[in-house]
Amino acid sequence: MSFHSCGSSSSSKENTQPTKRRIKLPKIEVRKFSGESLDWISWWSQFSKIHLSDDVPAVDKFEYLIAALTPNTRAYNIVTGYPMSELNYAKAVDALKTRYANPKLLKQLYVRELLKMIIQTQKSGEKFELSKHFDQLESHLRALETLGVSAEQTSKFLYPMVESSLPDNILIAWQRSPHYSSDSNDTEEQKTELTSLMEFLARKAASEIQRKTVREGFTRDGKLKNMKPTMGKGEEELQTPITAAGLLATDNSAQNSVQK
Asked: Are the C-beta atoms of 15 and 75 separated by less than 8 Å?
């Protein structure tokens, strides 16, 4: 009797305890590497989870590697040049890294991308989108940071390049801001010029996106959307576009009425 009561009390305690819900997450598909050097860092950071896994045999890793490469590209041809085997997997990865994971070449590549942005800003006659420009700048700077370029180095060498990539109106606004060439005497860690500039651009880009959102919320192709006010007959006539033919017809009808 006592054993039964003890069991019932323990079962009641177990029933009162909250059960953890298991969420079934979708499988993560490794995106294909196109063979473009600018895509290497992001692609390898994803594929390295398979590469470093101890639960996956080397032969299977080789198959995953080939499947994660875009066919008929240089990267694909480098890897498939090795017969699939456990020993050749490591050789194929080393060959791929030799071609795409050279830190010196990658740093030069991202610096050249910043130079391209400067040239495009100076030559482009299209409307300048600060939010898009800022995203590209941030992406290149983060890549350089991943490659081991310190904040001091980026501020010293890349700050003039980032500043030169801005159009005149944004550059003038930056030079008029209180954070431009400000010498802070606070006890907090002093920000670099590049950090202050990127924070300034982040605020300007956020304001641009907000203005764009407000405009798109009310207009599309220059017309009001989702707004259909009811009008009386007289109001509809006021909304009719005025044309030369309409003015001539109105003038003729007025003259006829005077002659009568």
From this structure: no
